[in-house]
Amino acid sequence: LANGRQIEFSDKNLGSVFNNQGLKIGENKSSTLYCYPIHSSLKEKNTLLVPIAGEYRLVLADGTKIYANSGSKIRYPDVFAENERVVELEGEAYFDVAKNPARPFIVKTTQSEIKVTGTKFNITSYPDDGFEQVTLEEGSVQVKRKGEVFKLTPGRQYFLDKKSEEIVLADVDPILFTSWKDGLFRFQNMDMLNLSKKISRWYDIRFDFKDERSKKLRFSGAFDRKSSLDEFVKIMESTTDVRFKLDGNTVFISQTER
């Protein structure tokens, strides 16, 4: 909460949530925090922190649904401003925004500002990733960065390379970037370095590459997020030239010799 007080959500800790003023601001149930509309002039901001190997859903008072992926932070106010609805994201989240043309919905990341009135889209913006992605599934989106505005239509993706600051707009299959919220990992020609980052946030492990060429190997496929780490390793080793060796909380990755 705004004063630093933390409330842990779990299946054993369900029930009402109150803010610093003692006002009931939501209900925690079934891995979802349902926010309630309240009347307050303070407009305090709360932060939802999703741990590594976790995921959570947030339903805002306006009806907007947010699916937060592991290792993500979402900052949102108890009460939205009269002319706009603003939240802040660090990590990855899927947004199903309630339509309200008079009060646009804005997501701020460390790199960009994404503005919509009602739509479905995914944002990936982890601090330790070398990129930021905005993938549009339905509706329309405007991505603003350093004064420049990029408009997306369904099936289009905004990709920012943080190092070079190059921006690429491309046609993609949105399901490849949104299926995580439905319990699936999907990858299409993804290099092993970026794939390992996604996997490490889910299994709470660290990957160590024995050689640079292993990082550049690419993988296409899908598997259930409920799969164990052992099952994931078996899938990868049976479909790629990569070998995994688990030592404690670290997975060493190498390429098989031919």
Could you outline the blueprint of secondary structure elements for this entry?
Elements: E1 15-18, E2 24-29, E3 32-35, E4 45-49, E5 56-59, E6 65-68, E7 73-77, E8 85-96, E9 105-108, E10 113-116, E11 120-125, E12 131-138, E13 141-145, E14 148-152, E15 156-161, E16 167-171, H1 175-178, E17 184-191, H2 192-203, E18 206-209, H3 212-216, E19 218-224, H4 229-239, E20 242-247, E21 250-255
Parallel strand pairs: 3-5, 8-9, 18-21
Antiparallel strand pairs: 1-2, 2-3, 4-7, 5-6, 6-8, 7-8, 8-11, 9-10, 10-13, 11-12, 12-15, 13-14, 15-16, 17-19, 20-21
Describe this structure in words.
This protein is mainly β. Helices cover 12% and strands 46% of the residues. The chain has four helices and 21 strands. The strands form three sheets. The protein has a 16-stranded mixed sheet that branches. It has a three-stranded mixed sheet with strand order 18-21-20. Strands 17-19 form a two-stranded antiparallel sheet. Strand 20 and strand 21 form a beta hairpin. It is globular, with a radius of gyration of 20 Å. The model has no long low-confidence stretch (mean pLDDT 92).
Summarize the structure.
With 258 residues, the protein is mostly beta strands. The chain contains 4 helices and 21 strands. The protein has a 16-stranded mixed β-sheet that branches. The chain has a 3-stranded mixed β-sheet with strand order 18-21-20.
